[in-house]
Design goal:
Its cofactor is Mg(2+). With about 850 residues, this protein is an alpha/beta fold. The protein has 35 helices and 31 strands. It has four domains: about 240 residues, 2-Layer Sandwich (Dna Ligase, domain 1); about 100 residues, ATP-grasp fold, B domain (D-amino Acid Aminotransferase, Chain A, domain 1, 2-Layer Sandwich), CATH 3.30.470.20; about 140 residues, Glucose Oxidase, domain 1; about 300 residues, Phosphoenolpyruvate-binding domains (TIM Barrel, Alpha-Beta Barrel), CATH 3.20.20.60. Helix 4 runs antiparallel to helix 5, helix 15 packs antiparallel against helix 35 and helix 22 packs across helix 23. Bound molecules: phosphoenolpyruvate and magnesium ion.
Length: about 850
């Protein structure tokens, strides 16, 4: 191996980063003794050196390439530059992570006007010229950027004029085609190099450069592949699938990539090169028919496929070529597959004793699980659809429906049996009923922790937030998106997993929640160290959470229990109350609602723990702002609209997120928190009388100062004692803890731990307050930050370990200094993020809590975190 080049027999599959996936696998297959045409790999490091400084090619790399070509000539006993015994090569890119279709390939390199003649003598005219014209086309496209279609166009014209297909061309006609291709080069102010070495050098440079082409960059962005890795280049001696009727080429998966069935799946074309299979000009035949056409070759293939699967312990996607009856394996890689197939294949491999359960758990990506429990778009259809805009992938799943702009319209259309997508600038508590009946929710504003995002995730409804390209005019019921104008009733499709919004209907695929998933998650639980709880408050969400395997409820947000028309009205009455009597009236009504809610909730979770958080948001969030709604509310409260309007205005805050919310509200107006704990304990006592013992866990939000916690806790305890007394029951155990969601709370965590029974990190607010990024406005800039590589991740989606993570770590350490065994959880949205979970495990968190639909993926991620320690 030279500094920049590795021959296939010198490498191994462990060197993916340096040799790229393709190069590493070619090396591995060569060493397994498979029939791989000889060749070498130019390393990814060379690519990055070249991209940094192009002179690197001439000063360092060229010499090594020349030496490698000499060696290849010796191995193959052929010549790359002489006129006889021709060696032709392929040049293929190959990055460390598979980037299908992103980089480029050139075949048949080494042919020129002269050598094609010799080649024709060795083989046949039609074959030799076919190879040459392919080289011109690929070279023109990859190296000089002359669109492939222009070549195809010339070919079609000639076929039409001569009234025959390319296969039927005689020598002169083949030459005409070559001449027209060369003319196309000239029209584009370039010439096709006749010297094979020049061809090779230009091709290598072009593949290097293709690392930075637009589609490669976009693909990397999309799949979070770092830009600094570079691509390797594989130079391999050509074998010819287009050299006659005992030749061919194909692509085969060792198992069915759609269903996972353990049976070869794929196709081949006789007398063809790989490009023909991809281009779809001729219809390939199913792999099974190779058994009849070339039985020995087929049997060899089956043997090699088995060796490869056994070796890689995974389903393989294999490219092969047959040259005059001799089989060559050109490439193998772990095959792409659907989520359903991924699960079946992995479990089958365990059953076949090829994988251990632990390996199986590490094999499935938690993201795959999202596809198993939510519908996804049919991939083929998506490529045809018109992309309207991209926002934040707030809640996974895929859905299609008619646009509606208000919750009322959503309900109305739903009642008519229509499927709707609720599109708003942002959602608010009043929209809840419309959100429930919608197939999907899209907001032009808001981040990953905005109201729409949190509620949609809770319900398992797909959702895009922060879709800034949409100008949503709720009053005129139109959306402007670039030049496209959308109106109510128009059909759009929402992909909540990618954040992409499309025009028109796209068919979805639903994967049944099968036994295989249950099996995998059962194994996952055996290895889990962190527990997984759920963020949920409605009985149906609690039930979903438990069905998905939650070990308890980490966060029941009580403000979500005031959504819905009837409750919001009482909340509004309370906030706008003119006297104590009206306040008490509303408070009493709310007590009734809450009591019944808590009773049902405790009953639903049974013996599992449930943390109930006291009211958090600022009061004006419950109030209407639209003139008509204010009018309607005034009517309900028997007031003048102007009066109500003035009161609402008075409650407005300049910075509500930093304002009168959380425990601050509890301190200035204790009666709401007192009502809430009274409701909690009244229902707990009712259950106790029915023989069900519960241990209420009450959580105080947004604490930044120990005195805040002490003050709230004191009056809560008074109310709880009073409730025991009123009910004439003996006090039973309960816990009062606090959320840690402000940087100051992290710093004084040791003090807070003195008077808190447990902690739960509210990473939504903690991220907001640490960065100073408004959680509802991050959609305005996060995509641009990502594009400019200022930030790789949205910190509301994946924990910022360097900043926010350090604060959490500090708080955990301090808390445990005060109370060694204190139970500490995470209930912000990153708690359900598989990429953040290993960090939480490392710093000693006890549980993560997330929306119900994220629980299965979190259970797997938790097991993976334990297994990869
Ligand atoms: C948080 O801040 O992380 C949290 C869970 O609370 P909320 O999202 O309700 O503010
Ligand atoms: Mg919070």
């Amino acid at each position: 191996m030279s500094k920049w080049i590795s021959f296939f027999e010198e490498g191994s599959s462990k060197e993916k980063e340096l040799l790229g996936g393709k190069g590493a696998n070619l090396a591995e297959m060569t060493n397994l003794g498979l029939p791989v045409p000889p060749g070498f790999t130019i390393t990814t490091k060379s690519c990055m050196n070249f991209l940094e400084k192009e002179t690197f090619f001439d000063t360092e790399l060229k010499q090594d390439i020349l030496k490698a070509i000499k060696k290849l000539e010796q191995i193959t006993q052929k010549s790359f530059t002489e006129e006889t015994n021709l060696l032709l090569v392929s040049v293929r890119s190959g990055a460390a992570s598979s980037m299908p279709g992103m980089m480029d390939t050139i075949l048949n390199l080494g042919l020129n006007d002269q050598r094609v003649q010799t080649f024709a003598e060795l083989t046949n005219i039609s074959f030799a010229y076919d190879c040459y014209s392919r080289l011109l086309q690929m070279f023109g496209d990859v190296v000089y950027g002359v669109n492939k279609d222009k070549f195809t166009h010339l070919l079609r014209n000639l076929e039409k004029r001569l009234n025959k297909t390319k296969q039927e061309f005689d020598k002169n006609e083949q030459q005409q085609l070559i001449d027209s291709y060369k003319q196309l080069f000239i029209e584009n102010n370039v010439t096709f190099p006749q010297n094979p070495l020049d061809q090779l050098f230009e091709a290598i440079k072009a593949v290097f450069k293709s690392w930075n082409n637009q589609r490669a960059k976009v693909y990397r962005e999309l799949h979070q592949i770092p830009h600094h890795l570079g691509t390797a280049v594989n130079i391999q001696s050509m074998v010819f699938g287009n050299s006659g009727n005992h030749s061919g080429t194909g692509v085969v998966f060792t198992r069915n990539p759609a269903t996972g069935e353990n049976k070869l799946f794929g196709e081949f074309l006789m007398n063809a090169q790989g490009e023909d299979v991809v281009a779809g000009i001729r219809t390939p035949e199913p792999i099974d028919s190779l058994q009849t056409i070339l039985p020995d070759t087929y049997n060899d293939f089956v043997t090699y496929a088995e060796i490869l699967e056994q070796h890689y312990k995974d389903m393989q996607d294999i490219e092969f070529t047959v040259e005059n009856g001799q089989l060559f394996i050109l490439q193998t890689r772990n095959g792409k597959r659907t989520a359903k197939a991924a699960l079946k294949i992995t479990l089958d491999l365990v059953a076949e004793n090829r994988l251990t359960k632990q390996e199986a758990l590490l094999r499935i990506s938690p993201d795959t699980i999202d596809q198993l429990i939510h519908p996804i778009f049919d991939e083929k259809e998506v490529t045809q659809a018109k992309l309207l805009a991209t926002g934040l992938p707030a809640s996974p799943g895929a859905a299609t429906g008619e646009i509606v702009f208000t919750a009322e319209k959503a309900k109305e259309y739903h009642a008519l049996g229509k499927k709707v997508v609720l599109v708003r600038q942002e959602t608010s508590p009043e929209d809840i009923e419309g959100m429930i009946v919608s197939e999907a929710i899209v907001t032009s504003r808001g981040g990953m922790t905005s109201h729409a995002a949190v509620v949609a995730r809770g319900m398992g409804t797909c959702c895009i937030t922060g879709c800034e390209a949409l100008n949503v005019h709720e009053e005129s019921k139109t959306i402007l998106c670039g030049n496209t104008r959308l109106v109510e009733g128009e059909v759009i499709s929402v992909d909540g997993s990618s954040g992409r919004l499309y025009l028109g209907e796209i068919p979805t695929i639903v994967v049944e929640n099968d036994q295989n998933l249950q099996q995998l998650l059962t194994w996952a639980d055996e290895h889990a160290e962190l527990m997984v709880r759920a963020n949920a408050e409605t009985v149906s969400d609690l039930q979903t959470a438990i069905d998905f395997g939650a070990s308890g409820i980490g966060l029941a947000r009580t403000e979500h229990m005031f959504f819905g028309e009837e409750r919001v009205l009482e909340m509004r009455r309370l906030i706008l109350a003119e006297d104590k009597q009206e306040f008490d009236f509303a408070l009493n009504k709310l007590l009734g609602f809450q009591q019944e809610d808590f009773y049902q909730m405790f009953k639903a979770v049974q013996d599992k723990p449930m943390v109930i958080r006291l009211l958090d948001p600022p009061m004006h969030e419950f109030l209407p702002h639209d003139t008509n709604e204010i009018k309607a509310l005034a009517e309900q409260l028997n007031r003048y609209p102007s009066e109500v309007s003035k009161q609402i205005e008075k409650l407005q805050e300049t910075n509500p997120m930093l304002g009168h919310r959380g425990c601050r509200l509890g301190i200035t107006e204790p009666r709401i928190y007192q009502m809430q704990v009274k409701a909690i304990f009244n229902s707990a006592i009712r259950l106790m009388k029915e023989g069900i013992i519960v241990c209420p866990e009450i959580m105080v939000p947004l604490v930044s100062e120990k005195n805040e916690l002490d003050t709230v806790k004191n009056f809560l305890i008074d109310t709880i004692n009073q409730t025991f007394k009123e009910n004439q029951v003996q006090p039973f155990p309960y816990e009062i803890g606090t959320m840690i969601e402000l940087p100051r709370a992290c710093i004084i965590a040791d003090q807070l731990a003195e008077n808190a029974d447990f902690f739960s990190f509210g990473t939504n607010d903690l991220t907001q307050m640490t960065f100073g990024f408004s959680r509802d406005d991050i959609g305005k800039f996060i995509n641009s930050y990502k594009e400019k590589e200022i930030m790789i991740q949205d910190p509301f989606q994946t924990l910022d370990q360097t900043g926010v993570g350090e604060l959490i770590k500090l708080a955990v350490t301090k808390a445990r200094q005060t109370k060694k065994e204190m139970l500490i959880g995470i209930c912000g949205e990153v708690g359900g993020d598989p990429h953040s979970i290993p960090f939480f495990q490392k710093i000693g968190i006890d549980y993560v809590s997330c929306s119900p639909y994220r629980i299965p993926a979190a259970r797997l991620a938790v097991a993976q975190a334990s297994l990869s320690k």
